[in-house]
Amino acid sequence: MIDKKNLFLIDLSHVIYRYYYTIGFEEGTDYEYEDNQFEILDSGIYRKIFSFIDKIANLGQVIIFEDSKLISRNKYFEEHFPNGYKDNRNKRNDELKLLKESISKLLKQYKQPAIKKFNYEADDLIKEAVRVAKKSKKYNHIYILTNDFDLAPLIDEEVTLYRRSPRNNTSHAEPHPYIYNYEMISKGNYEAYFKTIGMTKGVHVPYNSILLFKMIRGDKSDNIVGVKGVGPKAYNKFISQMTDEEIQKFKYYDWTIEAYNKTKDKTYYDYDEIPLDEIKTDEFEVIYKEPKELKELSLIIKKYFSTEVAKEIIIKYRGMALNAAYKFNDSEYDRKPIHLNKKVLELPNFNSSKISYENVMSIDLSWFLWYNKHIKINK
């Protein structure tokens, strides 16, 4: 029986990566391509991925979040850091691109609970979904399934994270569910868990400090370098000197809104309070302001490091913060925080039985065929 009191937010990319790198993706096993028609087979990776999500849907309500092409965050890191954002990752994997694109089309065509938005990562959308779910007070608990720690700052009394285990471990604690090959990270086991991770080996990571750790020590997975000269010993000394109140300040904050309805001469400071009919019909002038808490974060860092380091940390925060606003000289790259309507919580639960495997999809594979001919064969 489905427990509707629990909400599961799934980062789809990590599920796709999980199966792609364990069982592969091959023509004849997973799909057929003939006469410019792409057909999905029901015996391979698609069924594995959807069956896994079915199992999670049996535990509670599922909403799936997809990555999209990033413009604003990439531009921000290009302007502030020479290494760019995630530029150390493989630039091209056409098999993964095909797999992602075809799954995205299936989810959309068969009206599965999946959300995707251009210029936003799944993590941006999940952060906003957590906000909406908390505000609804509809759920007993919120669970996030992912593969990295970008969403770990959301962990609290209401939110628990399940991370795909690179060590093939399974961990959980009652009353939280058992999910095979996933490690549970909650407020209760937060510090103990990070003692077992290679990234934080030999470093003290108290509750809610992983974002602070990544800004100071760096994050190789996102190609973010650490503060020069701050090794494990220096970091441990710094974190031991901080008060718990200071540590808890380093979390994700919301960009604030000032929405002036020019039609009705009225200003709103909370997006959720704007009537939907006004959004549809009236003319608005909207300004987003960065969190006022950033000034306080800067002052805290200045207590322990130089002013220059404080500036570096705040620059990193603006880029790493989820669902942040971006403003550039060239407005083409501007981005506002995304606002999800509470109706996303009313989406039907995931059900793979509604997805047809006899579907022939319209996908331009000219780029993929070139890849197979010139790259994959050579490998």
Instruction: Indicate the structural class.
Output: alpha/beta
Q: List unreliable stretches of 5+ residues.
A: 375-379
Which range best describes the helical content: under 10%, 10-25%, 25-40%, 40-55%, 55-70% or over 70%? 25-40%
Q: What is the topology, as strand order, of the major beta sheet?
A: 5-4-1-6-7-8
Describe this structure as you would to a colleague.
The chain has 13 helices and 14 strands. It has 379 residues and is of the alpha/beta class. It is globular, with a radius of gyration of 22 Å. The N and C termini lie far apart (48 Å).
Describe, in short, the structure shown.
By secondary structure, the chain is an alpha/beta fold.
Q: What are the SSEs and their pairings?
A:
Elements: E1 6-11, H1 12-23, E2 31-34, E3 37-40, H2 45-57, E4 61-65, H3 72-80, H4 94-109, E5 114-115, H5 122-136, E6 141-146, E7 159-164, E8 182-185, H6 190-194, H7 210-217, E9 218-219, E10 224-225, H8 232-241, H9 244-247, E11 256-261, E12 266-268, H10 276-281, E13 284-289, H11 293-304, H12 307-320, E14 360-361, H13 366-376
Helix pairs in contact: 11-12
For the structure shown, list the relevant keywords.
alpha/beta, three-stranded antiparallel sheet, 379 residues, six-stranded mixed sheet, disordered C terminus, globular, 14 strands
